[in-house]
Amino acid sequence: MRVAADAPVTFGITGASGAPYAVAALRALNESGTPVRLIISGYGLRLLAEECGIDGIDGLRAATGDWSRVEFYDSLDRGATPASGSAPSRGMVVCPCSMGTLASIAAGTSRNLVERSADVALKERRPLILVPRETPLSLIHLENMTRLTRAGATIMPAAPGFYHRPRSIDDLVDFVAARILDHLDVPHTLGARWKSGERPVEDA
């Protein structure tokens, strides 16, 4: 199915550790002018407060720039727009993605709007990027990831690289956010890119 370049990205935030990755990716999406359908679980909101000091939706809005193209949905509303396969979308990312959410998506149980939206992405053959942040991984975790990969999802662990010689935590966070946007085919300016045989050129 061909989707317009200006179709929205569905963005889910759940309760796995890694809230800074979500904040960085959402900010970059806003800076790119990409429409976003945002869904945050109750534990996702708690995570934003505990890890980033972001208090509720107003706090997240203040931390991530222009929200003129962001639509926010209640995670308990499984009948909202992102739950429908007929609603155009260029794909979905769940960042961070808890192992409970990952397991539910793998099983197709769709307990809330995040999980139903992910189910829709899979059935409509749209990009689905899941960003887990867990270690170590049990066999159950790995089998769920394998099942989702076979179904068409991209499993992108929040594992930043170091070849760009990061100088701050923000550099590490941006590395992961950049990979997310790359796989959604969204232009961004998050850090330098690798060039064969040399270190990435650092931004001035």
Features:
single chain; 204 residues; alpha/beta; Rossmann fold; 6-stranded parallel sheet; 7 helices
Structural overview:
The protein is an alpha/beta fold and 204 residues long. The chain has a single domain (9-183), classed as Rossmann fold (3-Layer(aba) Sandwich), CATH 3.40.50.1950. It is 40% helix and 14% strand. The chain has seven helices and six strands; from the N terminus they run E-H-E-H-H-E-E-H-H-E-H-E-H. The chain has helices at residues 19-32, 42-52, 56-63, 99-107, 113-123, 139-151, 169-183; strands at residues 9-13, 36-40, 70-74, 91-97, 128-132, 154-155. A six-stranded parallel sheet has the order 3-2-1-4-5-6, with helices on both faces. Helix 1 links the parallel strand 1 and strand 2. Helix 1 (19-32) crosses helix 7 (169-183), helix 4 crosses helix 5 and helix 4 (99-107) packs across helix 6 (139-151). The longest helix is centred in the last third of the chain and has 15 residues, at 169-183. The radius of gyration is 16 Å and the shape is globular.
